[in-house]
């Protein structure tokens, strides 16, 4: 059967593939510790589930909603964005989508012509580059350094700039590195983007999962000019343990948002009505579970980070947000005579039944991603097994 060229070129998500592999091994009865998932291990808080059940019973969610989301949910997004970012928004600057991933997808489809470039700092979240390519754009991948906490600088942006540069993509806190940009760093990039008239895509999906008493500054809060230049991507998946509900949103320039809504109207029609009702409760209801989940992640990070950092041949800085560790394991690979991180990850899974994600899908062939969205027991046991694997491979 003939397939389109774009499908032949498309890399499937390495994180979803790794998680599927773990599920399969577990189903076959293997004692696998999977640290591959990109989602909280908590279930959705009760108040949100109950709001969804009530919405179903009311019959109101039997029907299509507006393509860009229900007026109530958009209003809630406007309210929390005022609270968190200090921004005053109109409903035509907000679109609700089937997950933040689809917000990004429709955004690229809306802003890119063939050959238009998007600057993406490396390591990057696995879907960014592939989504740019699906829109016939060109991902311009810029390497960042562990010493600079894997953050891009204005000098690097300047070097990457061409007359086809359409946008830059920032994700703070970052998946996979867990690093956050300081306000000064964001301001420097924001002012540069305003001066060059480059759109800033600010993926803030992990902004409420920040640890060690820090907080993640928001690009769009820094000035009116920067806010006008920024599209915010956000959603309920990570903050409220709602990955399965598929509700994300984008905020920004009304013309871009209108374009995105047209794509939604011709593709998914609207995000699922019952999930929108649940997201409304998530945003406006009791927020105590957000804090509880954040504290649980922070405890795991503080327990597990020193143990991971002490593994032979592992190098990393302590993450400040999200729920991933992204060590450079070049030293550990060398100890075992490995020259390929994916082979190292596969051997670890085969010999010690610990599943990590290869850094290759994130553009980092010396790193692995390990999610600490798992029980403390599993995390502690994983460290024991990884250490044994490294020692046995020497
Ligand atoms: N952005 C980043 C950096 C992510 O890690 C994810 C999910 O893994 C998303 C966006 C998409 O989230 P969702 O589509 O579940 O809203």
UniProtKB/TrEMBL annotation:
Transmembrane segments: none annotated. Keywords: Aminotransferase, Pyridoxal phosphate, Transferase. GO terms for molecular function: pyridoxal phosphate binding; transaminase activity. Its cofactor is pyridoxal 5'-phosphate. Its EC number is 2.6.1.-. GO terms for biological process: amino acid metabolic process. Residues 31-386 form the Aminotransferase class I/classII large domain. It comes from the Bacteria. It is an enzyme of class 2 (transferase). Belongs to the class-I pyridoxal-phosphate-dependent aminotransferase family. This is Aminotransferase. It comes from Enterococcus florum. The gene is aspB.
């Amino acid at each position: 059967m003939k397939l389109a060229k774009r499908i032949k070129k498309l890399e499937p998500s390495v994180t979803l593939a790794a998680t599927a592999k773990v599920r399969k091994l577990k189903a076959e009865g293997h004692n696998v510790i999977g640290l591959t998932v990109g989602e909280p291990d908590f279930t959705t808080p009760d108040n949100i589930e109950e709001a969804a059940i009530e919405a179903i019973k009311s019959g109101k969610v039997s029907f299509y909603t507006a393509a860009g989301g229900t007026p109530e949910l958009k209003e809630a997004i406007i309210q929390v964005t005022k609270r968190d970012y200090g921004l005053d928004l109109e409903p035509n600057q907000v679109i609700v989508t089937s997950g933040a991933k689809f917000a990004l997808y429709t955004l690229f489809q809306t802003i890119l012509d063939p050959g238009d470039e998007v600057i993406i700092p490396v390591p990057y979240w696995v879907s960014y580059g592939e989504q740019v390519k699906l829109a016939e754009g060109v991902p311009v991948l810029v390497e960042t350094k562990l010493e600079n906490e894997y953050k891009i600088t204005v000098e690097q942006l300047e070097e990457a700039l061409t007359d086809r540069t359409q946008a830059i993509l920032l994700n703070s806190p970052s998946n996979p590195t867990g690093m956050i940009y300081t306000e000064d760093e964001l301001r420097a990039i924001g002012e540069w983007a305003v001066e060059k008239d480059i759109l800033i895509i600010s993926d803030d999906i992990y902004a409420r999962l920040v640890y060690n008493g820090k907080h993640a500054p928001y690009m769009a809060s820094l000035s009116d000019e920067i806010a006008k230049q920024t599209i915010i991507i956000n959603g309920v998946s990570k903050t409220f343990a709602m990955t399965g509900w598929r509700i994300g949103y984008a905020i920004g320039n009304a013309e871009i948002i209108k374009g995105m809504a047209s794509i939604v109207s011709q593709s998914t029609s609207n995000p699922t009505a019952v999930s929108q009702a649940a997201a409304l409760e998530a945003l406006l209801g009791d927020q105590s579970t957000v804090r509880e989940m954040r504290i649980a992640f922070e405890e795991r990070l503080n327990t597990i980070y020193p143990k991971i950092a002490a593994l032979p041949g592992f190098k990393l800085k302590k993450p400040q947000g999200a729920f991933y560790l992204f060590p450079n394991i070049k030293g550990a690979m060398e100890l075992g005579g490995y020259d390929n991180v994916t082979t190292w990850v596969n051997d670890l899974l085969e010999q010690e039944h610990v599943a990590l994600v290869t850094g290759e899908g994130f553009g980092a062939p010396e790193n692995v991603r390990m999610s600490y969205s798992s029980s403390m027991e599993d995390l502690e046991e994983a460290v024991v097994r990884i250490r044994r694997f490294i020692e046995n491979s020497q």
